[in-house]
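ARCHIVE ENTRY
Sequence with per-residue tokens
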Amino acid sequence: MRITGDHTALAIEGRLDVRTAADARARLHQAVDGGLGDLVLDLARLEFWDATGLGVIMGTHRRAGRIGRRLVLRSVPAQLQRLLVATKLHRILAVDGVTGVAEAHGVAL
């Protein structure tokens, strides 16, 4: 897993799972704490996330909300969108853009 960017926009590459969660959490929380306004998280190159990785995203979302920021997911791959829809987290998380997966399920992301 690799995270690049700053306190306003980050991109995650690779896998966000139990093995990478601690490093990802530290980097995402640092970005949340170091900025103002929306924090955009580009997931276009994220290959996989497991329940632990999704927990990191949710924890970052909650942390951002507590200090008046908003976590915005951008370019969410189709397989990960399906997970957001299945878990109904698309109703909680801010997701920028809609793809065929969401539209096929009648879901606005």
Observations:
- The chain has a mean pLDDT of 91.
- The helical segments are 21-33, 51-66, 78-86, 100-104.
- Residues 33 and 67 are 8 Å apart (CA to CA).
- Residues 51-66 form the longest helix (16 residues).
